[in-house]
Design goal:
The complex is a heterodimer of chains A (about 350) and B (about 850). Helix content of chain A is about 40%, strand content about 20%. Chain A is of the alpha+beta class. In chain A, helix 1 runs parallel beside helix 4 and helix 2 packs antiparallel against helix 4. With about 850 residues, chain B is α+β, with helices and mostly antiparallel strands. Chain B folds into 6 domains: about 80 residues, Phenylalanyl-tRNA Synthetase, Chain B, domain 1; about 130 residues, OB fold (Dihydrolipoamide Acetyltransferase, E2P), CATH 2.40.50; about 200 residues, Phenylalanyl-tRNA Synthetase, Chain B, domain 3 (3-Layer(bba) Sandwich); about 70 residues, 2-Layer Sandwich (Phenylalanyl-tRNA Synthetase, Chain B, domain 1), CATH 3.30.56.10; about 210 residues, 2-Layer Sandwich (BirA Bifunctional Protein, domain 2); about 90 residues, Alpha-Beta Plaits (2-Layer Sandwich). Helices cover about 25% and strands about 25% of the residues of chain B. In chain B, the strands form 11 sheets. In chain B, strands 29-33-34-38-37-36-35 form a 7-stranded mixed beta sheet. In chain B, strands 6-5-4-7-12 form a 5-stranded antiparallel beta sheet. In chain B, strands 14-17-20-21-22 form a 5-stranded mixed beta sheet, with no helix packed on it. In chain B, a hairpin with a 2-residue loop joins strand 36 and strand 37. The chains are: A alpha+beta (about 350), B alpha+beta (about 850). The interface between A and B is large, with 102 and 107 residues.
Chain lengths: ~350, ~850
């Protein structure tokens, strides 16, 4: 029986010396194979007496299990070491760049228009689009710009050849031109009792202006219009402040200044607290702490009437903003000409 | 409008008011202060709600001084040396001011000349440099004489841009007094929008300030000391068209002495942006700036002479078409029949409300002055300004509307100022012809109006108080107020428009800030979305997901630019352009007819620096139409070129965009929109390669054309090495075709049978036909046909091609048997063999 203990000790000592998988296989053959001392000892069990045999058999089996367990342990240790070694040789330079992805992007103005439209959509304003080429009647006259009125000076127009002399054709100077179309379309549904309106009118507008880093011959605009029986200047302030807080940030402050647009009365410009400096003054807000964002006002009674809404009964507010300006402020873009130049080095930043 | 603070103080007490706060108050009330220009007063630092400019005069370094003697410079004829006392000590100051030459070598000056004196280190404007540039006075030597201080011109102090001599101060100015205490001022530049034309004058702005700050407004200065005889009989007025000239007023001042105005008058005129001329002309300008009524001074004796020594008659009438008049600016003007002339019996004198003529002007020798104040139809003045391309301070005001009631007030004010500054005697009374009196405008308002328009509860008392401070007269009427509009403003209408006008006035003075922000309580309108826009947005998203960049381009272009999209010999289509009548640049003369040309321009702009061009735009093209307005047609254009995937350090060149890559984009786009069963066939389009162009048909309707651009088109753009593919798609047609919904397919539960089928057909047999026939023959059990190889070569034979398909057989409810598949395969092979002459490839 001492023999079995010796076999076990010698075998484990030999296993300790094993350094690689080949030596481990040799060890297995030597210690657990057909000619191994343990195998021989187990074969010899038959020669023992019937009293001795069960104990000796049990002991021999224990030694065998111990050696097999030791073998398994050694094998996984060697495998682990081998894996570690091979992994360490597979080390990558993680600072090499990733693969280029051809991402398709939307134009920054599309992105801004979508944000604006989405915010107003959640307030019940639907998108209404109208044409780029308009008549003087829709672009000016019905919006309370009489002929030769000083307010027309503020908007130099591109005229189209061949229009009627008393109602020239022109490229719309503001998306407000769509206001009358929309009101008339809504009013036509029930002229005696026209339905309320809540729309935004995005679109391309044109002005006869020299192109510079601050002005373009074409620009997008989003006009908004709400008409109903109980629409107030307070609603204008609330709606546009809600918009500003969604578009810029939840805590941004707004300021309304009296202004003048022929198609609104009273009129107001909305400023928001500069979101770059938080109102403490910086180059973006020209050290004023405020940024001009949009023009607005209560729809002029003449405009309501021209749209088919009785101004004695209905009221409304309208506003207009420039997506280019919103985009320029948001991303500190210095030159408005970038938008229509479409240099990929500009577009792929958004 | 430039508004000097000192002038405002004549009419409203501004004691203790912070200038920045005042500017802000005006701005939020609709009188936008664009800039505060400081003339010596301390300037604010830190946050500037209003833009500021100008100089702050250091009280230690810029002071009043007296020149006691003017002597010659030892080395320079054009310079003088002044012996000057600054309140503490005497200095020798060198200057080249020409208005000191007269005092040279006169010994001790009695009384001494009071001047603005700048010491070493003072910040001033550089008088010798063009434009306004600040500089700090440094010690130097000029022609051998030590110089460390100077006497200042108006420009150097920032009062105006004049640098023709130094300014003189009042004789009672005490040497050593800080200059800012004597001359310090600030000028508010206020943007006058058309609705506040009434405020294009000092008194108007003062009235607004009084209303906004609750301070008292002093009465309008219209008193005149008339010691002369009655004016009656001195002149007659004859108005031919009272619509165009509702009122004409004349006053008379006799025995004037023409000379420069007092210094403070010149200073105010300069600050307000006008140039002092002489006391008479300055008085007309001063009164105009102060009250807003432009005035015109005639030399009365010239008029008498022209009338043959009889009583002159001033008449106003529309010009005859083509009639001429030489105006004060020396231009001979050919007039239209809508222009109103002021004439006498001998001929025309001036263009009413705009500019005087040369002949009857006040000159150095004028003794008796006839002063005109009138009222003109502002639309008519505008038309004349546009036609004559002229501008003047008078026209600026008359073209925005001046109430007829202002005419006698302006004349009285002008006469009084002339009397004070020229020593003349004013005739008693005015000659006042007023054939078309202005209507008195009255508007009824009530608290209900404030609630309805503004959403705020305002009492009659609150509204009454606000409107009274602006000069409105208020009477209680029923539950509300009857408001009478004051006779200095023309912007308030009657009826419901008048109510809106008054609500603006109430809201402005009440303060927009004080009106609470609310959410709309009104009914929500019916919601119906915008399907065409939603489709465009889906199209944009799909293309972006395919790695294609959206662009937005100019809708204004030129026919020459658009011609590049066609090969040179192509006759352009005969659809006329929408042409601009007024062109700002030769690059932008028409509205585009082709979106392809727009996007190609962008491809060209980017081609040289990009290995991959993948761009799209959704937008309108414009076709002139029989109707008044052109057709605006929505289009999509995609341009593809270069590598399909961007190269990087691991993956060098990927496959280039070719016809089939473009087709893949078209097919994926349309399939993703739920469009199936579209027909692709060879297309014809002058911009495309004739052999590499296809069109997509939905039934008979052409939806899209795509393919490789014609090489002659490509060569007209600078594209580097790129070969471009293009897709043009009609979004209006697409909108009619895209289904609102589609049925999805269940995911099969049973295994498919997949096998390959390779056949050889004649080159002339289109692959699309083969595939369609396989699909049709396979029917429901054939779930998929995918072409995976096309091969041509000797093994197959000339004019033949091999097409290899992977066929997927699939039954929805069970596993197909080998037998079923074999039969189906047999049927497919038989049909394509018989009908297309296909041979099975081993």
């Amino acid at each position: 029986m001492e023999n079995l203990q010796t076999i076990r000790e010698q075998a484990l000592a030999a296993l300790n010396a094993v350094q690689d998988e080949a030596a481990l296989e040799q060890w297995k053959v030597a210690q657990l194979g057909r000619n191994a001392a343990l195998t021989q000892a187990m074969k010899n069990l038959g020669q023992l007496s019937a009293e001795e045999r069960p104990l000796a058999g049990k002991q021999a089996n224990e030694v065998k299990l111990a050696l097999e367990a030791a073998f398994d342990e050694k094998r996984s240790a060697l495998e682990g070491a081998r894996l570690r070694e091979s992994l360490s040789s597979e080390k990558l330079d993680v600072t090499l760049p990733g693969h280029s992805i051809a991402l398709g992007r939307l134009h920054p103005i599309t992105q801004t228009l979508r944000r604006v439209n989405a915010i107003f959509a959640q307030m019940g304003f639907q998108v209404y689009r109208s044409r780029d080429v308009e008549t003087d009647e829709y672009n000016f006259l019905l919006l309370n710009f009489p002929p030769n009125h000083p307010a027309r000076e503020m908007q130099d127009s591109f005229y189209v050849e061949g229009g009627a002399p008393d109602n020239p054709t022109l490229l719309r100077t503001h998306t407000s031109a769509g206001q009358i179309h929309a009101m008339r379309e809504y009013a036509a549904k029930d002229p005696g009792n026209p339905p309320p309106i809540r729309i935004v009118l995005p679109g391309m507008c044109y002005r006869f202006e020299q192109v510079s880093s601050r002005s373009e011959v074409q620009f997008t605009q989003v006009e908004g219009l709400a008409v109903g029986e109980n629409i107030t200047f307070g609603d204008l302030k609330g709606t546009l402040t809600d918009f500003a807080q969604r578009f810029f940030n939840a805590n941004v402050r707004t300021r309304f200044r009296a202004s003048h647009f022929p198609f609104t009365e009273p009129s107001a410009e909305m400023d928001v607290e500069c979101f770059v400096c938080g109102g403490s003054g910086c180059s973006v807000c020209k050290h004023s702490g405020w940024l001009e964002i949009l023009g607005s006002g209560m729809v002029h009674p003449n405009v309501l009437r021209n749209g088919g809404y009785d101004p004695e009964k209905y009221s409304g507010f309208a506003f207009g903003m420039g997506p280019e300006r919103l985009t320029m402020l948001r991303y500190r873009i210095e030159d408005i000409r970038y938008f229509w130049r479409n240099d990929m080095r500009f577009l792929e930043q958004f | 409008m430039k508004t000097p603070l000192s002038w405002l103080k004549d009419f409203v007490d501004l004691e203790g008011i912070n200038l920045e706060e005042l500017a802000h108050t005006l701005t939020v009330a609709g009188l936008e202060v664009e800039e505060i220009h400081y003339i010596g007063l301390p300037m604010p630092s830190g946050l500037q709600q209003t833009k500021v400019s100008g100089l702050s005069w250091d009280p230690e370094k810029l002071v009043v001084a007296e020149i006691r003697e003017v002597g010659p410079h030892p080395n320079a004829d054009r310079l003088v040396l002044c012996r000057l006392f600054d309140g503490e000590q005497e200095h020798t100051v060198l200057t080249g001011a020409p208005n000191l030459y007269d005092y040279k070598d006169k010994g001790e000056l009695k009384p001494p000349l009071k001047v603005a004196y700048a010491k070493e280190g003072a910040e001033i404007y550089d008088g010798h440099q063009e434009g306004m540039h600040k500089t700090v006075l440094k010690r130097t030597k000029i022609r051998g004489v030590d110089s460390y201080s100077m006497v200042c011109s108006a420009k150097e102090l920032g009062i105006s841009e004049e640098h023709e001599g130094i300014i003189f101060l009042p004789a009672d100015a005490k040497p050593g007094t800080p200059l800012a205490d004597l001359l310090g001022d600030a000028v508010l530049t206020i943007a006058i929008t058309p609705n506040i034309a009434r405020d294009a004058n000092i008194y108007g702005v003062a009235r607004e300030i009084a209303a906004l700050t609750g301070r008292a407004l002093k009465p309008m200065p219209t008193d005149v000391q008339a010691a002369g005889p009655k004016i009656d009989g001195a002149v007659k007025i004859d108005i031919k068209d009272s619509e165009l000239n509702p009122r004409f007023v004349l006053g008379m001042l006799r025995n004037v002495e023409i000379k420069p105005s007092p210094g403070w008058v010149q200073q105010r005129l300069r600050l307000a942006g006008m140039r002092p001329i002489n006391n008479i002309v300055d008085a007309t300008n001063y009164a105009m700036l102060e009250l807003g009524e432009p005035l015109h001074a005639f030399d009365y004796d010239v008029l008498v002479q022209r009338a043959g020594s009889k009583t002159p008659t001033i008449l106003t009438r529309p010009a005859k078409q083509g009639e001429t008049l030489t105006t004060l600016d020396g231009v001979e003007r050919k007039l239209d029949d809508f222009t109103v002339l002021v004439c006498d019996t001998a001929g025309s004198l001036s263009i009413g409300g705009i500019m005087g003529g040369l002949e009857s002007e006040v000159t150095e020798t004028t003794r008796n002055v006839l002063l005109e104040g009138a009222s003109w139809n502002f639309i008519n003045v505008r038309k004349t300004l546009v036609a004559q391309r002229m501008s003047s301070e008078a026209a600026y005001r008359f073209s925005r509307g001046v109430h007829p009631a202002m005419a006698p007030r302006g004349v009285s004010r002008g006469l009084e100022l002339m009397r004070q500054w020229s020593g003349g005697v004013v005739d008693a009374g005015l000659v006042d012809e007023y054939p078309k009196p202005a209507e008195v405008v009255q508007v009824a308002i009530s608290p209900a109006d404030a609630k309805r328009w503004l959403g705020v509860a305002l009492s009659n008392e609150q509204m009454s108080k606000i409107l009274t401070t602006l000069g409105f007269e208020i009477k209680q009427q029923g539950d509300g107020l009857l408001v009478t509009v004051p006779d200095h403003r023309l912007d308030i209408e009657t009826g419901v428009v008048g109510k809106a006008d008054l609500m603006e006035e109430v809201a402005r003075i009440y303060g927009y800030d004080n009106i609470p922000a609310t959410r709309i309580a009104d009914a929500l309108p019916p919601q119906h979305g915008n399907p065409p826009l939603e489709l465009e947005e889906r199209v944009k998203d799909l293309l972006a997901r395919m790695g294609i960049q959206e662009v937005m381009t100019y809708r204004l272009t030129s026919p020459e630019e658009e011609a590049r999209r066609l090969p040179p010999e192509t006759t352009p289509d005969d659809k006329p352009y929408v042409k601009l009548a007024n062109v700002i640049s030769q690059e932008r003369t028409v509205l585009r007819k082709s979106l392809l040309a727009s996007v190609l321009e962008i491809a060209e702009r980017n081609a040289r620096q990009r290995q991959r061009i993948a761009l799209f735009e959704v937008g309108p093209v414009f076709h002139a139409s029989e109707e008044t307005l052109p057709d605006e047609l929505q289009r999509l254009v995609v341009i593809l070129g270069g590598q399909q995937q961007p190269a990087d350090w691991q993956a060098a060149d990927s496959a280039a965009y070719d016809f089939y890559a473009a087709k893949g984009v078209v097919a994926e786009l349309l399939a993703s929109l739920g469009l199936h069963g579209l027909k692709y066939e060879p297309g014809e389009h002058p911009s495309f390669h004739p052999g590499k162009c296809a069109r997509v048909l939905a039934g008979e309707r052409q939806l899209a054309v795509f393919g490789e651009l014609h090489p002659q088109v490509q060569s007209q753009y600078d594209l580097g090495a790129h070969t471009l593919q293009a897709i043009t798609l009609n979004l209006d047609v697409l909108g009619e075709l895209v289904p609102e919904r589609f049925d999805s397919r269940p995911v099969p539960q049973y295994p498919p049978v997949i096998e390959d089928l390779a056949i050889v057909v004649d080159e002339s047999v289109p692959a699309g036909k083969v595939e369609a026939m396989i699909a049709q023959t396979g029917g429901n059990l054939l779930a998929g046909v995918t072409l995976f190889d096309v091969f041509r070569g000797d093994k197959i034979g000339a004019d033949k091609k091999s097409l290899a398909y992977q066929l997927t057989y699939q039954h929805a409810e069970r596993t197909l048997t080998d037998d079923e598949v074999a039969k189906l395969r047999e049927r497919i092979i038989r049909r394509i063999t018989q009908e297309l002459g296909a041979q099975l490839r081993a």
